[in-house]
Amino acid sequence: MSPYTHLTLKDRESILLGISTGKTLDTIAKEIGRSKSTVSREIARNGGWRNYSAATAQDRYRRVRLASRRPRILDRPGTRDAVIRYITVLHWSPEQIAGRLSLEGSPIRISYSTIYRGIYLDNLGVPLKSHGARGLPRLLRHRGKTRKIKGTINERRGRFNDVPSIHDRPRSAENRSWFGHWEGDTVRGKTGHSALVTLVDRKSRYLLSKRTANAKADTVRDVMIELLGALPANRVRTVTPDRGREFARYRELAERLNTKVFFPDPHAPQQRGTNENTNGLIREYFPKNTDLDLQSDQEIETYIEQLNNRPRKVLGWKTPSEVFMGKKLHLS
C-alpha cells in the first residue's frame, strides 16, 4: 500500500497562509510535512502563487476524485433494466440473477451483493408509489417477513399412521442420484375452495402441479395419477407425500402407477425439504387465503413454468427444466 495521502483542507489552508505571509516553498512544505514537488504542483494547478484559493482547490479536488471513480454498474440503463425485469417479472432473487448471468457468459457481470446494495440504496431507480412504500424489497423472496418458530404452529389437519416409512426408501432417493423420486403435497387456497397438488422431483427440483377442485383424497389421488402417469416409467420411481389425509388413497396411487409410496415421520417436514421449499416459492404467487378459484389455468401454468425456469444455486445455476429435460436454455 502506498504511504501517500491526499492533501486535506487544513493542508491547503496552511499553504494559502504561507503564500500570504511570503514564506518560501521549502518552508511551506516542511510545515505541512509534504515534499516541495507536492506543494509546487498543488499551487500550480490551482491558480498559482498570485491566485491560489484553499476553498477552490478543495472543491476541484473533490470533483476530480468523483470523476475518477468507476461508474456504478447499476447506473448503466441496460443492466439496471435487466435486473429489474428479473426481479419483477421472473421473480428471481439477486443471487439467482448473478449466478445465471455468470453461467450463461452474459456480458452483464454483476454480483448479488451489488444488486442488494442497489435495491436498498435507491430502489434501483424505480420511483416509490407512495411515502413509506418499500418498493423492490417487497418483491424479494421473504419480503422481510420473519420465520415461524418450530413448535408454535398448531396443525389441525387429519393424520394417519401405519404407513410405509421414508426410512425404507431406496438409497437413490436419499442421495438424489436418479430422476423419478417425487415429493408431494397440496397448497391450500381459501378454505373450502380449490387447492394445488404439487409434486417435485428430488434430483432436478422439477415441479408438476395442477389445480384440484378440493383436497379430498379421491380428487388428489386422481390428479397425482394424471400428472405422474404422463411421464415415462423410469421417471416415476417413488412418491413421498405429506402425511395429510388427502393422501389416504396412496395404495391405489401406487398400484395405478406401479410405484412405491413412502411417508415421512410425523412432524418432520425437513424430510420432504425439496417440496416444502417449492411450496414456499409457490406462496410468492399465491399467498395464504388466496382464492385459487379466481385464478385461470393459464395463470397457474405460467407461474409453474416460471418456477421451472428459475435458476437454482443447488443446480449450479441451471434450471429444473434444464436438468430434468436435459436441454440447455438461454434465459438471460
UniProtKB/TrEMBL annotation:
Gene3D superfamilies recorded: Ribonuclease H-like superfamily/Ribonuclease H (3.30.420.10)
Cellular component, GO, one term: cytosol
Occurrences of domain Integrase catalytic (ranges): 166-328
Any one Gene Ontology molecular-function term assigned to this protein's record: DNA binding
PANTHER family linked to this entry: TRANSPOSASE, TRANSPOSASE INSI FOR INSERTION SEQUENCE ELEMENT IS30A-RELATED
Protein name per the record: Transposase InsI for insertion sequence element IS30A
Listed InterPro entries: Integrase_cat-core, IS30-like_HTH, RNaseH-like_sf, RNaseH_sf, Transposase-Integrase, Transposase_IS30-like, Transposase_IS30_CS
UniProt record similarity statement: Belongs to the transposase IS30 family.
Keyword DNA-binding: yes
Origin superkingdom: Bacteria
A Gene Ontology BP annotation from the UniProt entry: DNA integration
Keywords, alphabetical: DNA recombination, DNA-binding, Transposition
Function: Required for the transposition of the insertion element.
Organism from which the protein derives: Lacticaseibacillus paracasei subsp. paracasei Lpp71
One Pfam family linked to the record: HTH_38
